[in-house]
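User: Here's a chain of 174 residues. Predict its fold as tokens.
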Amino acid sequence: TAVASLKDTMARAERDGGKDPGKNLFMAERYAEAGSWLTSALNSLGRSAEAVQIGRDARQVAEAVLEIRPGDFPALYSLGLLEGSLGAAAVEDLRPADALPFYARATGVYTTVSRLDPGNRTYANNRASQYGELSRALWSLGRLEEASQALGVAVDATTTVDEGAPTLFLNRLW
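Assistant: Prediction complete.
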């Protein structure tokens, strides 16, 4: 299964120094990346407690990589995925207020990588997606004006992805 494969990847990366970026930066990037995908997979399976535990661990590694190399794309990408997944876990556990800082950080990460690599459609799409998730969490808390602003940023961000994307994005939202 994907979960078993990702756990194995994390274990191998850890064995080769992946939890210590000062020791092995490349393996630390792999550890954080596998952890970000594992966190997302576990959320999809409804295993949010396990997802949060692994996500926090992998996030620490991604942040440590970024302390050494602030513009490290693999670490930034992993961090964006992790923050979004941690936000999703909070929403899944009916704690939308707790999701807000995670979604805010995910949008910040994807805004940064979109500026560093403006033609990258994946980063632009992930930025739009995280603003959409932020909008949903704000909406569920009754913070309608902020939700509307976040949704507006999401729609604007999709324009970077594709000319027809705002309509497709709005159809997917509602």
